[in-house]
Amino acid sequence: MFLRRLSFLNERIRSPQVYPFSIPAFAADTASLKRAFQGVDMVIVAASTAKYTREVALVALETGIDYLDIQYSTKKLAILNSLAEKINIANCYFITDGGFHPGIPAALVRFVAQYFDRMEKAIVGSVIKIDWASLSMAESSMNEFIEELSDYSALFFKEGHWKKAKMMGMVDYITMDFGREFNLQYCVPMFLEEMRCLPEKYPSLQETGFFVGGFNWFVDWIILPIAMVAWKIWPKGSIGLIRRLMVWGLTTFSKPPYGTMLKVEAQGEKEGRLHVTDVVIYHEDGYKLTAIPVVACLLQYLNGSIRKPGLWLQANLVEPNQFLKDMELMGVEIRINNRCLS
């Protein structure tokens, strides 16, 4: 949990005036949260677990403050959606699914839409290469990560409807050229709630979705299949074994180069001609690429341009041009490539 009065943030990103203070709080203790939330404008939930989403959200509503989180969790989304009416009644601003994925992919699609009169395809892919051996992974965080894998949704949008990927035989895998040291990577569909609204927003869109690259060859092709089978046979009892296998596989077989990248490949019509636009977002540090989009979102929150009461997904709420511009000012490498094919 990270608590801070947000009024200290300054729109001059390169030289913000920061006046930090800390307040001890325990997410499971509502009385503790109530004391901590006094005089606070927003709570930013930056914990590695979404276990206490309901407790934090309810106290935020009771004290009348705003809320932002950075976890990827289907259970978290279900809890917040169940509170949507209360959020509106309280006139609070709740932003969920912050960070880079979820958090950026749908914003990237919204960004590239301006380059087309008719956008027909917009595929977002990611590659995340981390030096896992240098990290300290909490047992609770790994357990939650494994539980999310068991609830993994492999939906993507094609030919006018959402379809579930056929994972056997690699039928619905894609390859994407990320350039740099990563080059061609296999990517599998991973449904993000922020992508759901895109076909409705852009009716000409025939193909979209988010696709994620693998961890490393050993985890992808050996440990994950074993883990999925073990989870189905012995759901809760196998979690310790799966966790140990995952940590061992990630720390043993993940090799350089390291870095985190998102890429959108979009295609459509511009002035009657076939047009293609690619946008690549890169940072060598995946943790910074999680924090920077959140700050870029908060800058729009602070200037009032995205203050709309209710429950929002970061990628659907931010104004994408300013969002990317602010991320670039904070050290994210952004490359845009437009070309006409006919």
Question: How would you summarize this macromolecular structure in one to three sentences?
Answer:
The protein has 12 helices and 14 strands. It is an alpha/beta fold.
How would you describe the overall organization of this protein?
The chain has helices at 30-36, 53-63, 74-82, 84-89, 105-112, 139-150, 198-201, 217-233, 239-253, 286-302, 314-317, 320-329; strands spanning 2-4, 42-45, 66-69, 93-96, 118-129, 155-158, 161-164, 174-177, 184-189, 207-213, 259-270, 273-283, 310-313, 333-340. With 342 residues, it is an alpha/beta fold. It has two domains: 2-96, Rossmann fold (3-Layer(aba) Sandwich), CATH 3.40.50.720; 105-286 and 332-340, Dihydrodipicolinate Reductase, domain 2 (2-Layer Sandwich). The strands form two sheets. Strands 5, 6, 7, 8, 9, 10, 11, 12 and 14 form a nine-stranded mixed beta sheet that branches. The model is unreliable at 1-19 (pLDDT under 50).
Number of helices: 12
Biggest sheet: strands, sense, closure? 9 strands, mixed
Q: What is the mean pLDDT?
A: 87
Helix share of residues?
Answer: 25-40%
Number of domains: 2
Q: What is the overall shape?
A: globular
What's the gyration radius in Å?
20 Å
Q: What structural class do helix, strand and pairing data support?
A: alpha/beta
Task: Tag the structure with descriptive keywords.
five-stranded mixed beta sheet; Dihydrodipicolinate Reductase, domain 2; 2 domains; disordered N terminus; Rossmann fold; alpha/beta; nine-stranded mixed beta sheet; 342 residues
